[in-house]
């Protein structure tokens, strides 16, 4: 046994006293009230990353994205942005060069090649794509995987350590459920996956401690975990590192649909962009904790507040994912959920195949950007803006792929109301081309939630993209002297 050396208390006190004396001599005086070091500081974003999942079926695809705020397009700002492949772990593929984007503040729609074949046995291997930006190009970065026409089908997400998804189970029409994990960092990540269905928490030992190597991807099938269920909720957690995650579902006819990630469980949620539909929509609610939930549901419509379930609450058991039929809301709306315990939720809107999803999200800070929009060929787009508390004044800016072609307007959303505004291609832009939309709450606005809804024909919803903040600055907490790290 190694000997234990005891340090006399007097020696420790003497050492601490010496440290304090040196600190007094070498450190500046403690900042007084109002000094900059004691208040949060706003600094510009100089580095940002996104991850786009593999294209279903392995064919070529497109990524629509804006790197840099729109105002930077004419300022000669510096920085760079590029797409790079994220292959499946262990796949022996030929190296691909990164795809560079246009200048800052301009919409780029870049084509990504079809899935490659392995060098040894010519097996087709799907791969994701990372979007990295630096300098001014990192500000307000937003990217979506888009169809050949430039219509966003799924948002390219940020890497994180706790990500949630909610969607249909096999009894709800999801024949296949696939999870894509992408690690675009330089260190490996260790991932645990929890699945909750209407039968409760699914025990799945094979989904624990999944290793995702640096700059590579791992694909997991969750179909067996979703078997026999109406609703499936998926939590992706990392114990080491971080990953970007995406969940796709396929119906029995092979039609694939992406699930948008949901806001983390909370006692208050807002689900934006719930459009009307010809048949009953579904509200999917997850109660991940050990306590039962009592939930009040409020619809925020163009006419004001509306209680779709009257005065009744929705009572759900702990560790469950439940389906609640959602009758017509009288128009496009947002849903506000208030619960006694943390929950998360999504809405499934009927349509072709599995339909379309919108999910709980957070209010917009600074601005949000939706890069992949298109009109023509029977498609029409609208932005759904909801202000659950105070009124909001919002600037809507459409940006075309052609440099300098933009249009802008300011709209007002009354407190406790939802406003639906059509979005169109800017004047002088090429007909049928893709365009981006920037959503900017103006000073003094209350909390604002938004979603882009794209329809085909009269009322067939083909895509819903909940709006997420695209920051140009971040807040650094105040810094002050501390001896917290000093120990004998």
Describe this structure in words.
This protein has 488 residues and is mainly beta. The chain folds into two domains: 42-155, Jelly Rolls (Sandwich), CATH 2.60.120; 162-473, no CATH class. The chain contains two helices and 38 strands. A hairpin with a 5-residue loop joins strand 19 (244-250) and strand 20 (256-259). The chain is globular and about 60 Å long. The model is unreliable at 1-30 (pLDDT under 50).
Compute the gyration radius: what is it?
Answer: 25 Å
Largest sheet at a glance? 8 strands, antiparallel
Structural class: mainly beta
Q: Using DSSP, what is the number of strands?
A: 38
Low-pLDDT parts are 1-30
Helix content: under 10%
Shape: globular
Distance between the termini: 22 Å
**Overall residue-averaged pLDDT value:** 84
Determine the number of helices (DSSP H or I, runs of at least 4 residues): 2
Strand % is over 45%
The number of domains is: 2
């Amino acid at each position: 046994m190694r000997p234990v050396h005891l340090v006399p208390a007097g020696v420790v006190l003497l050492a601490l006293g010496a440290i304090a004396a040196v600190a007094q001599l070498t450190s500046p005086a403690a900042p007084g009230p109002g000094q900059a070091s004691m208040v949060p500081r706003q600094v510009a974003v100089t580095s940002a990353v996104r991850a786009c999942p593999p294209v279903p079926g392995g064919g070529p695809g497109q990524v629509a994205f804006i790197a840099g705020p729109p105002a930077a397009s004419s300022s000669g700002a510096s920085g760079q942005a590029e797409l790079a492949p994220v292959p499946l772990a262990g796949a022996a593929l030929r190296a691909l060069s990164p795809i560079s984007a246009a200048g800052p503040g301009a919409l780029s729609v870049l084509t990504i090649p079809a899935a490659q074949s392995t060098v040894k046995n010519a097996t087709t291997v799907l791969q994701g794509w990372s979007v990295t930006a630096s300098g001014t190009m990192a500000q307000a970065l937003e990217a979506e995987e888009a169809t050949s026409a430039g219509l966003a089908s799924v948002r390219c997400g940020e890497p994180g350590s706790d990500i949630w998804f909610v969607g249909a189970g096999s009894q709800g029409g999801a024949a296949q459920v696939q999870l894509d994990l992408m690690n675009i960092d330089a260190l490996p990540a260790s991932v645990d996956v929890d699945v909750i269905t209407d039968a409760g928490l699914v025990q799945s030992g094979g989904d624990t401690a999944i290793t995702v190597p640096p700059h590579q991807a791992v694909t997991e099938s969750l179909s067996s975990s979703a078997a026999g269920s109406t609703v499936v909720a998926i939590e992706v957690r990392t114990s080491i590192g971080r990953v970007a995650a995406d969940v796709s579902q396929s119906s029995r006819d092979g039609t694939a649909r992406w699930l948008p990630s949901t806001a983390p469980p909370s006692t208050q949620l807002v689900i934006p962009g719930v459009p009307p539909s010809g048949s009953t929509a579904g509200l999917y609610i997850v109660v991940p904790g050990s306590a039962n939930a009592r939930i009040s549901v409020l619809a925020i419509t163009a006419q004001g507040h509306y209680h779709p379930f009257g005065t009744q609450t929705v009572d759900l058991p702990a560790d469950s994912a439940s389906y609640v039929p959602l009758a017509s809301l009288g128009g496009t709306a947002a849903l506000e959920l208030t619960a006694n315990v943390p929950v998360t939720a999504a809405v499934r809107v009927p349509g072709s195949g599995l339909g379309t999803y919108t999910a709980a999200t957070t209010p917009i800070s600074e601005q949000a950007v939706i890069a992949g929009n298109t009109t023509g060929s029977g498609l029409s787009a609208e932005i759904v803006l909801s202000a659950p508390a105070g009124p909001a004044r919002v600037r809507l800016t459409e940006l075309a792929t052609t440099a300098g072609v933009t249009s802008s307007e300011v709209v007002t959303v009354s407190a406790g109301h939802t406003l639906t505004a059509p979005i169109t291609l800017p004047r002088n832009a090429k007909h049928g081309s893709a365009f981006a939309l920037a959503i900017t709450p103006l000073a003094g606005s209350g909390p604002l939630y938004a979603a882009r809804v794209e329809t085909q024909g009269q009322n067939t919803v083909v895509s819903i993209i909940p709006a997420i903040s695209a920051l140009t600055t971040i807040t650094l907490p105040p810094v002050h002297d501390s001896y917290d790290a000093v120990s004998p």
